[in-house]
Amino acid sequence: MKLQQLRYLKSVRDNNLNISAASKMLFTTQPGISKQIALLENELGVRIFERRGKNLHGITPVGEKIFTELDKMLALEEKIKAISREYLDPSIGSLNIYTTHTIARYLLPKTVSYFINKYPKISFHLHPTLPPQTKGKISKGYSDFSIVAHDVSHDNDLIILPAYLWTLSLVVPKGHPLDNGEKPTLEQLCQYPILSYEMGATGRATQEEAFSAQDLNPNYFMTVMDADVIKRYVELGFGIGIISSLAAQDVEHTGLTCISLDHVFEPSKAWICFSKDILLQNYMYDFISSFSPHLTKQVMEKVLSQTTRSKIEEMFTDFKLPVY
User: Residues 322, 293: contact at Cβ < 8 Å?
Assistant: First the structure.
């Protein structure tokens, strides 16, 4: 068994079992990857992938168990490399941020500008949150951080920390009946077709909880995850939009009006997540505290000393989070 074979396996899985895409990512050949996978399966005596003809169709049950250990081995390899790099030159490294379009557009620019100016030798990469085929999992690489505005399911391999609170706002065309200088009620919102987030999204769940508490049945005319799409269709007159206040803050010079809804909807939490196996380096602490000032290096070191998620949650009971 070779580490290179494990890297091939991981790349194939991460590329939705597409060997051609994996070979391009690794700058190698498709036959070369197929050969190494076959050699490893023969060595182990088990099938890691299910096949239909020459194509990979799925991962076998034993393959799933192998991938669990494989991820740990590759993470450990990267951690060892990171230790060496930090010792040789603390100013060199990499940082991968996985996040949503809204966070990347409206919240991150200030932190990114600060970071790349202070750490010009650090390789910085900004990625969209992981695609649907990964079942919503958070990336767990040695230099990967995820910043998400939705609840994250419990994962023993993750550290999940509150980053900030976010609120909802209403966007309507200028001159709309609700654009009257007064705060709209939930009953008034129900009188119009609503464009908002899809079922299961945190912002949508917050709305449903508030409407349900008053036995109201809103008319969701359109649901979509992209706030810019919602704003565009509101401009076209299809209804009223309920979106993140962050995404609504740039409508001032458009044909829309933004109205805060923090009087009817509770704020939601956003999270910063990373693997427990990450070796946090000084530039990583700096990035985190720049984005979320309450997550200082001292606080983070205390977090890392905790043994359970419940103890970490207790730490933040009285913390005042930024609100956007």
Answer: yes
